[in-house]
Amino acid sequence: MNARRASYIAFLAVISLALGGATGKLAARQQSSQPSQQPNSGGNSGQGQSMPGMNHDTPGMDMSQDMLGMKMDQSADEKDQQVEHGAMDAMSHMHHHQMGAHMYMTKLRTPATPADWAKADEIAKELRESIEQNNYMDYRVALGNGFRIFMPNLPQPEYHFTSYYNGFLESFSFNPARPTSLLYKKNKTGYDLVGAMYTMPKRVTEDQLNERIPLSIAQWHLHTNLCMPPAGHRLAADYTKFGLTGSIVTKEACTEAGGTFYPVILGWMVHVYPFEDSREKIWAQ
């Protein structure tokens, strides 16, 4: 169990660190193809943050050095096993919101005005229409259009089919028809689409989140207060203290324990279930 938890934490850390290089290369590619395009000044001009599904074989990621305990000189099978063991724990926790100090969720603003509901209804409508027009109910079409399954061989309540390019674009502009991830549940023969996920960089303000999707309707969330165990001691570390379910939630306590503290990992995330039969279920988190 300790080995599984250790690789889980390494997996999350690799995601958050490595995407910086991937995003830079995407940005360079974007600027090269559209040299006159500039990010707007409304706080969305930062680097895109990582999304669920980013793994060690993602194009554009420089994974040539050891990162936080994950040795890059392991065999492919060993690395795959390490990542898969980490993902198994990660996916059992990452979108459960009973994580105390390791999860921050925006508070619902009250009251929800008719204008707020009209905006949220329009977002859900555009998302629903995009899914139908692109035939994303068929998961094979999503795969053909560049969405990638995060750890398809691991049991998960929902599988994230992620477009990393969409996630990059979300750092600059919002298009309800262009989600970062499509969410599917597994069935006996494939996958059934149930929803989608939008993302924003972790550096943006809650007012900027509110501009995209009213915070009186939807609650965005961040994964917070990660204390990584000391390097070289991760397999034997006490994971009642370290990690995203551990008791250490402050930088001071993490430093005292010899760990490395990350106030926030990944970026803002919000799920939408546009085919549900009520507004509350559509925006349930």
What does this structure look like?
- This protein has 285 residues and is of the alpha+beta class.
- The chain has one domain.
- The protein is 35% helix and 16% strand.
- The chain has 8 helices and 7 strands.
- A 7-stranded antiparallel sheet has the order 1-6-7-5-4-3-2.
- Strand 4 (181-186) and strand 5 (191-200) form a beta hairpin.
- The two termini are 29 Å apart.
- 40% of the residues are buried.
- Mean pLDDT is 75; it is low at 1-97.
Rg is 19 Å
Report strand %: 15-25%
Order of helices and strands: HHEHHEEHEEHEHEH
Please identify the structural class as seen in this structure.
Answer: alpha+beta
Key features of this structure:
285 residues, seven-stranded antiparallel β-sheet, 7 strands
Secondary structure blueprint with pairings:
Layout: H1 2-33, H2 76-93, E1 103-105, H3 114-133, H4 139-144, E2 148-149, E3 159-162, H5 164-170, E4 181-186, E5 191-200, H6 206-212, E6 221-228, H7 251-256, E7 260-272, H8 279-282
Helix pairs in contact: 1-2
How would you summarize what this structure contains?
With 285 residues, the protein is an alpha+beta fold. 35% of the residues lie in helices and 16% in strands. Mean pLDDT is 75; it is low at 1-97.
